[in-house]
């Protein structure tokens, strides 16, 4: 160790050259330091030492006064925290595993400032082996990542994001709100500094401009310029810092984002002004630097506010669940965190409290407010065996529920995932706009270079300010904001109504739909049979028939039996009850033997021929009641139309949409429903394959088809249509089979969806047209020298603000 001064750390033979601990026998971890092979105690010390050597930092070993810390000691806390997220017990709360054993999680990204940041993260992380999907929601700064844990771990993904200058961590609604608040406060501070700087510099600029006309002492002019340079410096270094960070990220990845020309314009304007000040030149641009920074920050702050509000629906859904719940134990009540609840736990929900998870009522009777989930304004009655959804609110009386689903398996989690997926996926119109914006920036830089060369040859004095104006006026912020702000505003508004958009292309496709195909059961109808008519012989009355029927059916689980019992409580008692599968029920009521069921089964009790009084066919399902004298009554059941179905169909026709009814039900039932709704094309007894064939035929004729079904037995048909809408329900949401989900199950909201989709597409086109028109108008004026740099700053910021305000009109349905 002749090369090591005596006052430095003295390495002992047999100890690790890096950390000073003894080297285990048999270890051969060697690193060449200053051409000498040095022994290390472990792979961690070897890796750190190699990193020090590779970065030409070997002087560290020459002048150190104590051994270095072990590798695990110098790992930053944030990286150590990332490794914790790989633990299965921690992932249970935020990671979902699908049927292919792929893992999916939502992350919060810190440091996102523009669409280019989104693009950079998606390209960087999406290219990693084992990452199946990575998409960033620009509105909420949330990323949805799906990965194969056998190839890559979540900590590796988080570290990769950190390597390009961003911070990512699993989504937590409380932390999300903190980040929003931090983002707003930081933006306001930067605006304040830029605003104060702009005001002070503009005051000085007025004096300088006046001096150019009226005369000013040269020493005083130079002094005022240097004061302006000093005032502008904090604006440049603090307020404009996000532009530089974003531009540097883009350049490191060999890409041109929006902030590249912005940073270039600000830097060149300030450096040129300092040079002109030092050389006592003609004109400085400190006022343009401060004004441009102030206006651009103000525009982005307004856009950020719109983004936060537009993404508020998703955050409201996440925050619906309470933090704690009252779990019922043998020893009594205990207050526990909702995260501790498990299936089969019994939970007490007092009036005014929020349902903590999905489950079923085991005791109590009350009404529950489901408006935030389904858009249904009226509280829904709940009693024993009724399903409860986490996030809804108990209104009237205490309920005791049994937990069935928790965490990522709940309806609320499914809704949140689907909404997040819709907002992170990019429809074709947005992908095109992003691609155009990237090429536009490259073309802008070439144009600015050409303008600088031209004007330097024609009039060198005007070359710089004109080039600066071109760089500023053409920043493609408006073009990049044209689509995402509009889509986020529209999906947020529709979600509040109970129409959940789960695929990015849904609104874009729905706007162009010219055929809507409806399933019948559970879609146009309520999906449950109700008693519609009771026909009796002359000496029998309706109440007498219903009382006997209810007595026979009160123990049956058959849907028709349940419909009878709901209509008439069992006031009489039936004895000697015998149920015959597929035929009906026999029993003794008030000393008389009765049968209820099919006509053949009931007629068999009296051994008489079928009664002609009930021979006339009716639309719907029928059961018959009879005794040993013969058939005495026919009870007919129908699946009633949903409220608003007639109005929805008629208004769809007014919008130029052709309506079709494809059902697997009987011809008479389908014909009756179609007649009530005014649907001309109604086809019955169709299997799912038949429906799919019919839809393909419509598409072959050039039609754009929307399929509306219950999402259970119509999965192939839903997949075959260009856009599919499933009626609400936990199963459909869990499988995420459709492009949209009608949570409210109110058909008029489907009509709202079509109208909003058309408005959304129109506004996106308006936004893009405005952005293009602005640039087509502004660029020639800037190139001709007719736009001063400060005017360019105002114009660029105003164009982005117009796009945001125009998009927010979609929030008002």
Q: What does this molecule look like?
A:
The chain is of the alpha+beta class and 813 residues long. The chain is built from 31 helices and 29 strands. A hairpin with a 3-residue loop joins strand 20 (574-580) and strand 21 (584-589). Helix 8 (173-214) runs antiparallel to helix 9 (218-239). The longest helix has 42 residues, at 173-214. Residues 1-6, 71-78 and 730-735 have low confidence and may be disordered.
Tally of alpha and pi helices: 31
Shape: elongated
Q: List low-pLDDT spans.
A: 1-6, 71-78, 730-735
Instruction: Estimate the helix proportion, in percent.
Output: 40-55%
Q: Strand-residue fraction?
A: 15-25%
Instruction: Quote the average pLDDT.
Output: 78
Strands of the widest sheet, in order across it, are 17-29-28-27-18-25-26
Content-based structural category: alpha+beta
What can be said about the biggest beta sheet? 7 strands, mixed
The counted number of beta strands is 29
Give the termini distance in whole angstroms.
79 Å
- Gyration radius (Cα, Å) is 36 Å
């Amino acid at each position: 160790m002749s090369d090591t001064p005596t006052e430095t750390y003295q390495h002992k033979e047999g100890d690790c050259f890096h950390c000073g601990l003894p080297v285990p026998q048999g270890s051969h971890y060697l690193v060449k330091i200053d051409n000498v092979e040095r022994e290390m105690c472990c792979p961690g010390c070897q890796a750190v030492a190699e990193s020090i050597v590779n970065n030409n930092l070997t002087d560290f070993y020459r002048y150190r006064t104590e051994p270095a810390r072990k590798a695990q000691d110098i790992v930053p806390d944030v990286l150590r925290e990332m490794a914790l997220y790989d633990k299965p017990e921690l992932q249970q709360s935020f990671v979902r595993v699908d049927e292919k054993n792929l893992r999916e999680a939502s992350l919060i990204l810190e440091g996102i400032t523009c669409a280019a940041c989104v693009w950079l993260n998606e390209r960087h992380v999406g290219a990693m082996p084992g990452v199946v999907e990575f998409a960033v929601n620009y509105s909420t700064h949330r990323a949805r990542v799906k990965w194969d844990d056998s190839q890559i771990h979540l900590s590796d993904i988080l570290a990769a994001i950190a390597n390009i200058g961003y911070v990512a961590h699993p989504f937590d609604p409380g932390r999300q709100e903190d980040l929003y608040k931090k983002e707003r406060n930081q933006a306001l501070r930067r605006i304040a500094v830029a605003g104060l700087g702009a005001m002070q510099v503009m005051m000085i600029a007025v004096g300088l401009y006046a001096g150019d006309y009226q005369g000013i002492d040269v020493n005083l002019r130079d002094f005022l310029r240097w004061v302006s340079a000093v005032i502008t410096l904090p604006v440049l270094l603090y307020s404009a810092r996000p532009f530089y960070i974003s531009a540097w990220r883009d350049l490191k990845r060999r890409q041109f984002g929006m902030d590249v020309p912005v940073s270039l314009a600000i830097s060149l304007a300030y450096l040129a002004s300092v040079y002109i000040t030092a050389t006592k030149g003609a004109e400085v641009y400190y006022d343009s630097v401060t004004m441009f920074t102030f206006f651009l920050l103000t525009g982005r702050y307004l856009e950020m506010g719109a983004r936060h509000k537009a993404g508020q629906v998703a955050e409201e859904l996440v925050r619906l669940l309470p933090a704690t719940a009252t779990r019922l134990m043998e020893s009594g009540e205990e207050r526990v965190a909702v995260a501790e609840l498990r299936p089969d736990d019994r939970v007490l929900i007092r009036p005014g409290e929020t349902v903590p998870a999905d489950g079923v009522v085991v005791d109590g009777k009350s009404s529950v407010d489901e408006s935030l989930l389904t858009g249904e304004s009226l509280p829904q009655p709940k009693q024993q065996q009724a399903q409860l959804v986490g996030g809804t609110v108990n209104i009237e009386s205490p309920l005791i529920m049994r937990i069935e689903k928790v965490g990522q398996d709940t309806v609320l989690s499914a809704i949140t995932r689907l909404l997040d997926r819709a907002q992170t996926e990019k429809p074709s119109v947005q992908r095109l706009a992003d691609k155009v914006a990237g090429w536009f920036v490259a073309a802008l830089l070439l144009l600015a270079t050409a303008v600088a060369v031209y004007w330097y040859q024609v009039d060198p004095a005007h070359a710089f300010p004109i080039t600066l104006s071109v760089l500023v006026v053409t920043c493609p912020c408006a073009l990049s904001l044209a689509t995402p702000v509009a889509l986020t505003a529209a999906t947020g508004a529709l979600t509040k109504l109970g129409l959940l958009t789960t695929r990015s292309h849904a609104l874009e496709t729905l706007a162009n739909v010219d055929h809507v195909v409806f399933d019948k059961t559970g879609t146009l109808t309520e999906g449950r049979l109700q008693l519609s008519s009771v026909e009796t012989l002359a000496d029998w009355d309706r109440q007498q028939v219903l009382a006997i029927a209810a007595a026979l059916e009160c123990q049956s689980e058959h849907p028709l039996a349940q419909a009878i019992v709901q209509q008439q409580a069992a006031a009489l008692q039936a004895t000697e009850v015998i149920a015959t599968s597929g035929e009906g029920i026999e029993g003794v009521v008030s000393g008389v033997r009765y049968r209820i069921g099919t006509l053949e089964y009931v007629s068999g009790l009296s051994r008489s021929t079928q009664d002609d009084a009930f021979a006339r066919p009716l639309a719907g399902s029928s059961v018959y009641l009879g005794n040993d004298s013969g058939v005495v009554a026919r009870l007919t059941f129908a699946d009633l139309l949903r409220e608003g179905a007639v109005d929805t169909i008629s208004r769809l026709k007014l919008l130029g949409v052709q309506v079709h009814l494809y059902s697997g039900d009987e011809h008479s039932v389908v014909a009756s429903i179609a007649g009530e709704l005014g649907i001309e094309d109604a086809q019955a007894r169709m299997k799912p394959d038949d429906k799919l064939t019919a839809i393909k035929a419509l598409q072959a004729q050039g039609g754009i088809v929307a399929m509306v079904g219950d999402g259970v037995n119509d999965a192939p048909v839903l997949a075959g249509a260009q856009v599919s809408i499933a009626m609400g329900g936990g199963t459909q949401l869990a499988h995420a089979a459709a492009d949209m989900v009608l949570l409210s199950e109110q058909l008029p909201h489907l009509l709202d969806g079509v109208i909003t989709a058309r408005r959304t597409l129109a506004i996106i086109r308006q936004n893009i047209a405005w952005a293009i028109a602005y640039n087509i108008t502004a660029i020639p004026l800037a190139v001709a020298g007719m736009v001063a740099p400060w005017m360019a700053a105002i114009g660029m910021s105003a164009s982005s603000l117009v796009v945001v305000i125009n998009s927010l009109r979609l929030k008002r349905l």
